[in-house]
Amino acid sequence: MNRFFNFSTPQLRVVIFLSGMLIILSVYSFLRDYSEVDESRLKFSVTLGDNDQRYRPIIRIDLNSSPADSLELLPGIGPVLASRIISYRDTARFQKPEDIMKIKGIGYSSFEKLRDYIEVRPW
């Protein structure tokens, strides 16, 4: 006799086999559910600025008041460009979103990627 609820050896083997099958099927079900793409589910984009038109910007960043870490969330803006934006706005305020092209390193093509994500609020 063993110490496991007074099961006989064949009964214990069946319980272990069924437990193993339950674990295997649970892992399979989990992987199957999370590996399929379902277009009807609500999706959130983690990265900003991808060219996928299904995603719309959910935030708009004010160029005159946003901190550097918020500016770095913009597509194509890293720490260097964020610091350039901040140093520019310390000397002159942005009047319109197109003024961001006055920053060294941001041209028209970069502005096109940023257009939907930036704004200039009045004082």
Topology:
Layout (H helix, E strand, L loop, with lengths): L8 H27 L25 E2 L5 H4 L7 H13 L16 H7 L3 E2 L4
Parallel strand pairs: 1-2
Structural class by sheet pairing and helices: mainly alpha
Main pleated-sheet profile: 2 strands, parallel
State which percent range the strand residues make up: under 5%
Oligomer description: single chain
Euclidean distance between termini CA atoms: 83 Å
What is the helix tally? Answer: 4
Low-confidence stretches: 44-48
Task: Compute the number of strand runs.
Answer: 2
Q: In what order do the strands lie side by side in the largest sheet?
A: 1-2
The mean pLDDT is 81
Spatial shape: rod-shaped
Order of helices and strands: HEHHHE
Fraction of residues in H or I helices:
40-55%
Rg over CA atoms, rounded to whole Å, is 28 Å
Describe this structure in words.
This protein has 123 residues and is mainly α. The chain is 41% helix and 3% strand. The protein is built from 4 helices and 2 strands. The chain has a two-stranded parallel ribbon with strand order 1-2. The longest helix has 27 residues, at 9-35. The chain is rod-shaped, with a radius of gyration of 28 Å. The termini are far apart. Mean pLDDT is 81; it is low at 44-48.
List keywords for this structure.
4 helices, two-stranded parallel sheet, 123 residues, mainly alpha, rod-shaped, single chain, 2 strands
